[in-house]
């Protein structure tokens, strides 16, 4: 738990969330301001500021994050039509919450390239 981190407070329950999955390493919840019909955030319980802070010792954790996202995508019915994963990183990447999170977006066609 890192003080003053919004997502650490969501993991601890100090701030409520619409949780859809939790285990000892990973937490997943619906985005409060969805950018698509389905918009889930999958986060490590370990506080990492962004994806660049992930090091060799985090390889298994990052793998778990993505594999859990795959399972959630399947469970909420996104696998057939497809979906998008996004990890915004830093200011040019559009990151606004500095606790690593994987966006799972689906339920509508996505355009490319991102704005
Ligand atoms: P990013 O811009 O990649 O850092 O994404 C941060 C995401 O967190 C945004 O999509 C926000 O809508 C979402 N968000 C911010 N506060 C909350 C919250 N309290 N509960 C759920 N999602 C949140
Ligand atoms: Zn945090």
How many helices does DSSP assign?
Answer: 2
What structural category arises from helix and sheet content?
A: alpha+beta
State the low-pLDDT regions, or none: none
Radius of gyration: 14 Å
Q: Into which percent range does the helicity of residues fall?
A: 10-25%
Fold-level CATH name: HIT family, subunit A
Mean pLDDT: 97
Q: Rough shape?
A: globular
CATH superfamily placement: HIT-like
Through-space gap between termini: 33 Å
Oligomer: single chain
Bound small molecules, by name, code or SMILES, are: adenosine monophosphate, zinc ion
Order of helices and strands: HEEEHEE
Instruction: Tally the beta strands.
Output: 5
Biggest β-sheet: strands ordered side by side in the sheet = 1-2-3-5-4
Summed up, the domain count is 1
- Which CATH class? Alpha Beta
Portion in strands:
15-25%
CATH architecture: 2-Layer Sandwich
For the biggest sheet, the summary is: 5 strands, antiparallel
Written overview of the protein:
With 115 residues, this protein is of the alpha+beta class. The chain has a single domain (6-106), classed as 2-Layer Sandwich (HIT family, subunit A). It has 2 helices and 5 strands, in the order αβββαββ. The chain has helices at residues 6-12, 59-75, and strands spanning 19-22, 26-30, 38-44, 83-86, 102-106. Strands 1-2-3-5-4 form a 5-stranded antiparallel beta sheet, with helices on one face. A hairpin with a 7-residue loop joins strand 2 (26-30) and strand 3 (38-44). The longest helix is centred in the middle third of the chain and has 17 residues, at 59-75. It is globular and about 35 Å long. The N and C termini lie far apart (33 Å). The structure holds adenosine monophosphate and zinc ion. Zinc ion binds at residues 2, 5, 7-8, 47, 99.
């Amino acid at each position: 738990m890192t003080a003053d981190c919004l997502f650490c407070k969501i993991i601890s329950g100090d701030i409520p969330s619409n949780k859809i999955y939790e285990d000892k390493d990973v937490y997943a919840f619906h985005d409060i301001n969805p950018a698509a019909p389905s918009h889930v955030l999958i986060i490590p319980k370990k506080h990492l500021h962004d994806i660049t802070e992930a090091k060799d010792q985090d390889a298994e954790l990052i793998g778990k994050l993505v594999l859990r996202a795959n399972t959630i995508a399947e469970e909420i019915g996104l696998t057939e039509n497809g979906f998008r994963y996004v990890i915004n990183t830093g200011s040019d990447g559009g990151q606004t919450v500095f606790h690593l999170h994987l966006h799972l977006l689906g339920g509508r066609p996505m355009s490319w390239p991102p704005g």
